[in-house]
Design brief:
The chain is an alpha+beta fold. The chain is built from four helices and eight strands, in the order ααβββββββαβα.
Length: 264
C-alpha cells in the first residue's frame, strides 16, 4: 500500500500554525494596549482631582500645622501644600543653605528652625538668596509665618548626596538639617514662607513652584492608537488566512508539470 504524500501539506500546516501564533500575540498586545490606555484615563482623572485639591489648599485661609500628635500620619495626599500659619519665634541657630535653582536663577534656600508657641520646632524655608547677596536676619522675638507645608526631602539631589559634616545641602532634608543643628525632635515637614512685601528683598519668599505633569491624555491616546494598529494587523491576518483556506488547486499535483505529448 502506497503511503499518502505528506510533503506538500506540512509547510501549509506550519504556516497556519505560525499565523495562529501571531494572531494570539496580536490579541494579547491589543488587550494590553487597551488596558494601558484605560489606566492612563484613570490616572488622568486622579491627576485632575489632585490638581483641584492642591489649588484649593494653596488659596485657602491659613490654618494650624499638624501638631506633634499627628506627625506620624502626615502624608502628601492629605497635607502637602496646605497653607498654614506658625506663631512663635525663630531660634538663635545658624540657618542651613540648601542649593536651589529658581526663576530668579541659582542660589540657596535659607532654612531656619522656628519654635511654635506650642513648643514644636518646624524648619521654615525663609526664601531664596542669590550668590553674593546677604540675607536679612530673621525677626527677633515673637513672629508669625504664613506659608505652604512641604514634606521632607531626604538624601540629597540628583547624583549628589547631602553632606551634613561639611554643611553641603542639596535637598531640604528636614531630619538631617535639624540633627546637624542639635535639634533632635523637629516636625517631619517644613514650611515655604510666603513673600512679605514689608520684608527685605533677601531672602525672597513665595517662590514655591506648584506644578504637576499632566501628560496622561496623550499617553492614553498613544496606547489606544497602538491598539487600533494591532487590530488592523489582526484583521489583515484573518483575511489572509481565510483566502488561503479557500484556495484549492484545480490541477492534480501529478499533472502540474506534464507537458504536451507526454501522456500515454
Amino acid at each position: 500500500m502506497t503511503p499518502r504524500p505528506t510533503g506538500p501539506a506540512t509547510p501549509a500546516r506550519r504556516r497556519r500554525g505560525l499565523r495562529l501564533l501571531f494572531a494570539a500575540a496580536l490579541a494579547a498586545a491589543f488587550a494590553g494596549f487597551v488596558a494601558l490606555g484605560v489606566w492612563q484615563l484613570q490616572r488622568l482623572g486622579w491627576k485632575h482631582d489632585l490638581i483641584a485639591r492642591v489649588d484649593a489648599r494653596i488659596h485657602a485661609a491659613p490654618a494650624d500645622p499638624p501638631p506633634r500628635a499627628q506627625w506620624a500620619s502626615v502624608d502628601a495626599a492629605r497635607d502637602e501644600y496646605r497653607r498654614v500659619r506658625l506663631s512663635g519665634r525663630y531660634l538663635d541657630v545658624e540657618p542651613a543653605r540648601v542649593q536651589a535653582v529658581t526663576r530668579l536663577g541659582p542660589g540657596w534656600w535659607l532654612l531656619a528652625p522656628f519654635e511654635t508657641d506650642g513648643g514644636d520646632v518646624v524648619l521654615v524655608n525663609r526664601g531664596f538668596v542669590p550668590p553674593r547677596e546677604d540675607a536679612a536676619h530673621p525677626p527677633g522675638g515673637a513672629a508669625t509665618v504664613v506659608g505652604l507645608l512641604r514634606l521632607d526631602e531626604p538624601g540629597g539631589g540628583f547624583l549628589r548626596r547631602n553632606d551634613p559634616a561639611a554643611g553641603r545641602w542639596f535637598s531640604r532634608d528636614v531630619r538631617a538639617i535639624a540633627a546637624a543643628r542639635g535639634i533632635q525632635d523637629a516636625a517631619p515637614y517644613f514650611v515655604d514662607a510666603e513673600r512679605d512685601p514689608a520684608a527685605p528683598r533677601w531672602p525672597a519668599g513665595g517662590l514655591t513652584v506648584v506644578q504637576f505633569r499632566d501628560n496622561h491624555l496623550s499617553y492614553a491616546l498613544t496606547w489606544f492608537a497602538l491598539a487600533l494598529l494591532t487590530a488592523f494587523a489582526g484583521a489583515r491576518l484573518f483575511l489572509l488566512e481565510r483566502r488561503s483556506r479557500h484556495h484549492v488547486p484545480t490541477t492534480p499535483p501529478g499533472e502540474r508539470d506534464a507537458g504536451p505529448g507526454t501522456g500515454r
